[in-house]
Every structure is written in structure tokens, then in C-alpha cells.
Amino acid sequence: MARHSSAYQRGSAFPPSGRRSPSPQPEPARDATDSPTHPEAGSGAYPGVTDPLSYPGAGDPATFPDAASPRAYPTAADPAAYPAAAGSPHPGAARSPAYPGISEPSMDHPNAAGGPAYPSVAAPNQPGRFGAADAVGPAGVAPGAPAVIRAAGISKRFVSGRNRATSLKERFVRRGGPAGDDFWALRDIDATIGRGQTVGLAGANGSGKSTLLKVLAGILRPTSGDVEVHGRIASLLELGAGFNGELSGRDNVYLNASLLGLSKREIDRLFDSIVDFAELRHKIDDDVKHYSSGQYVRLGFAVAVHVDPDVLLVDEVLAVGDEAFQRKCLAKIAEFRAQGRTILFVTHSLDLIESMCDRVLVLESGSLIFDGQPAVGTKLLRQKLGSLPAEGPVDWQYATVRPQSVSFSPEPGGLSMVQYDPGQRLTVSVELDVTEGAPENIYLHTYIVGQSEVPIWMMETPAGGFVLGPGRHTVDFSVPHLPELLGAFAIKVHVSDAATGAPVTTRRFDELFGVTGPQADGLLKVDYEARLRA
Ligand SMILES: Nc1ncnc2c1ncn2[C@@H]1O[C@H](COP(=O)(O)OP(=O)(O)OP(=O)(O)O)[C@@H](O)[C@H]1O
């Protein structure tokens, strides 16, 4: 099992025992000084291959959101809450155009061990670490699928180059002060990917998708949090796909495939198939620096899918290929999926997520705001991106105040009952989940709706609303004497901010209560007279 965590030691095996206190270090912003080389690279075994028994904290069972009942995640913690940068400089996060891609490790990442490595290789399967307690069963995947990737509390801070200390002296002088402009690209992400899942990673530009993929691949070190990986990962993370521009396509195939764990003999056997897949036989002996971006990606993808990975991580790079190659890649992904391999891919194509994924993770400003069924997650994202109007201000599942359930009983807190006679007491109880960021004074109005959604009457909280803190609350609306009615009735709840009147959400519940009065269906009885005017 390979693990990436903030407890990494540079260029060496993992610590022998005990959880190290992280010495998180923000990534520097991409700039011209980022180098693709790895001066710290030591010699040694393939990176990421570690002694599973020595890893601190492995086996902490995390709790996972129930993907079948998607939930919004709490607002990300204030960056200030994260530990300040300390420890050795971290010049990684290179995005050099020359060697971006599959496997470029940041320099102080342990994967930097192993010579001129651009590995995204993770350790071969190590049985025993992921037991039944780790099983996850998100949408579309049989419950009990073992976890292959687990990210716990992942945060990633970058320091922009603008105000970054550029010398030791400056660093010393600024000690205790800000190291530069902090920017949190990821905030407290928890996610567990089960074996065989095809997971889409979606979100607006800059929401943190690529950063998360790189952290999972072990290419970026998280500022805090842990990643565990069970199995061999092949990743295609950026345009350029991790090739050495000075080498030919042929040499790069050998270099990359060997870094992904294949022997020379295995690569000899696969070579033709890789080249054919990439459709680059005519170019294979040219230096890859003369390749077009699409050709880079073809070769990178071809290598990645030929090394028999357990987990395939793919960034939006597919968009670079022409349509025919995209089709080929998607067919390959579908084949992997059918073989029960695990795939995590970033895409802006929400249709693709709906058609290919079992599950979607949606990021917003570095926070995971949704983890669950693709149809629901893409709807949320479309709403957020403004391509789909929200039903009411915000779908109730994502609102800061969520009407969770409604129940009917004669007395508040009494046994629930659904059938009533006119004149009887009825209490409609609305259960609300109030999250951080909800209005302080919450105003509810509930409509009792009859056939064809016709409102029969309305009940509301006092004008100032109720002050409800985060947590679960129940609001009871009691009707001492039900009017004469006949029919079945449902409840529609509107939530708004009592201070500003701003709507929060609306939910129409399916639960019904019935009243067996003498009236015609669904009508309220009022006293009246009928006279013929003289
Ligand atoms: N090395 C870096 N230094 C500073 N900021 C960075 C660095 N890498 C990424 N960022 C910033 O982190 C944020 C997340 O970037 P990331 O590439 O993960 O987003 P994304 O969701 O993949 O975006 P897109 O859809 O546009 O590809 C962005 O604001 C980006 O500018």
C-alpha cells in the first residue's frame, strides 16, 4: 500500500513507526523557477513502495458519507485554523511545460526518490490493511467494495509568489509573520474510493480538481491530511504526460513504463501495442519535445493504460486529443470499468459523468460539496454554474436550513397518526437540519396543499422567526380543531431569513394526512347561505 501524507520524509522510506507530526509546507506558486528536476532524488527502490506495517495511522477507520443520501459538507474551516507552514522548503508543485504530467513529483515528496523519476506508481497490492471496516458502497457500487484510495482531511495550501520570501534572510526576518499570500486550494477533503468505482471529479475552474488528483497520485504533498492508496496507480495528470522532452517517444515509453513498475521484458512485449494505441509509429523515434500536445497525451495515455494499473487517475487531458482519440480513450476507460478497475477522472463534461460514472465528487473553492450519485451531483453543479435554474432559491438538500422530515400527530411529540376527524387536534411537526452559515432567525411558512397542489391553509412562525443554531430542530404547528374537510393533504415548507426576507429553500413533502369530513374532496367547509335574490 502506498500512502501519501503530510508525514512524509523526503527521499526515504516512510517513518518506522508512530504518527509524525506533520511539518506542512505550502506549495510555491507556479513560476519560472519551478524546475522539473529533482535534485533531492536519492537512489533506491521505486517510490511509494513502503512497508505497510510501518505507517502511522493506517487503519484508522474513517467515516464516510453515505453516498446514497448525498449531503452537503460543512463549510471549510478558516485557513487560519490550519497549522502554519514549517519545516523544510518545498519547491515542488512544478508545472514545467517540459515535464508535466503523469508522474512529476514535487521535490520533497517521497516519490522523488529513485533518480530522474516521474513516477505515479504506487505500491502493488498489500493485503490486510483495508478490512471490512473500510468497505464503502457509494452509489452504483455494491456495498462492501473495499477501499482503494482513502483521503482523510486533505488540505492543500499554496503560497503565491507575489509576497513569498525569496531568500533565507527574508525568511528569517519574516519568521512568525506571513510566509506569503496563502491560498487554500483544498480544504479538509474526506473521500474514500472503493475498488471498481468510476468516479468523476467535477467543479468550476479553479475549484481544486487537478490539485486533488495530484495529491491522490502522490505528486503533491498535502499541507495536512493523509492519503492511503491500495494498489498500483497510473495517472495521466497534465498535458505533456510526464515525458522527458529530450528523449525520443520510444525511450520515454521505456522510462515511464519502468517507473510504473514494468520490467524491460514486459515493456518489450507491450511496446507495439502502446505505439499502436497512440497511433504514433511514424513519430516514435522523434524527440517528444517536437510532439504536439495531442501527441504527448496519446503517448501518455497509451502508457498509462498498458501498465495494468489498479487505479487510473485521468485529468481533463482527454480534451486535448482529437475526437477519434477521445472516443478511443473513452472506450478504454469503459473497458477498464468493465474489468472492475478503479477510475477517477476530472472532467468538465457533466454528460460524461452521468453516462460513465458511478459516483461524482463536486468541488467548490477547494471544498467537497457533494459526494454521491452523478445525476444529483451534476444537477447541483449545473445549478451552481447557472446552467440550470434552481427549484426555489436552492434545492433543499443543499440549503443551509434543510427541512428533513414532516410528521403528523394529535399532540406535539405524540404518536404519529395520519387519519383525523374534523374538530380533532392536529400537530404538523417539521424537522429541520440547520447548518453553519444558516440565517440566525429562521422563518417558516407551511402550506397545507390538497388536490392539484391547491393550498388549503397556511401556518407560519412568528414574524421574527425562531433563532436556531446549527443542529436538528423540530417546529410544531398545532391546529386545535381541524376544520371540516375531506381528502388527503400534503405539506409544503418554505424557509426564509426572518431578518431579510431572503428565501432559503422550499420542500414539498410527499407524506399525507387525511381528514374524513362530510365535504366534497379536498374542500374546506365554511358556513354560508344560498338565497335566490328577489
Ligand atoms: N502551484 C500552485 N501555486 C499556486 N496556486 C496554485 C498552484 N496550483 C494550483 N493553484 C491554484 O489552486 C486552485 C485550484 O487549481 P486546480 O488546478 O486544482 O483547479 P481545477 O479545478 O483543476 O481547475 P480547472 O478546471 O481550471 O482545470 C486554482 O486557483 C489555482 O490557481
TrEMBL record:
Residue numbers spanned by region Disordered: 1-121
Gene3D superfamilies: P-loop containing nucleotide triphosphate hydrolases
Domain ABC transporter: 168-390
Gene Ontology CC: one annotated term: membrane
UniProt GO MF annotations: ABC-type transporter activity; ATP binding; ATP hydrolysis activity
Record keyword Kinase present: no
Pfam families: ABC_tran (PF00005)
E.C. no: 3.6.3.-
Biased composition (Low complexity): 10-22, 70-98
Alphabetically ordered keywords of this record: ATP-binding, Hydrolase, Nucleotide-binding, Transport
Alphabetical list of InterPro entries matching this protein: AAA+_ATPase, ABC_transporter-like_ATP-bd, ABC_transpr_TagH-like, Bact_Polysacc_Export_ATP-bd, P-loop_NTPase
The keyword Isomerase belongs to this UniProt entry's keyword annotation: no
PANTHER family referenced in this protein's UniProt entry, alphabetically: TEICHOIC ACIDS EXPORT ATP-BINDING PROTEIN TAGH (PTHR46743:SF2)
Family classification: Belongs to the ABC transporter superfamily.
Protein name per UniProt: ABC transporter ATP-binding protein (Partial match)
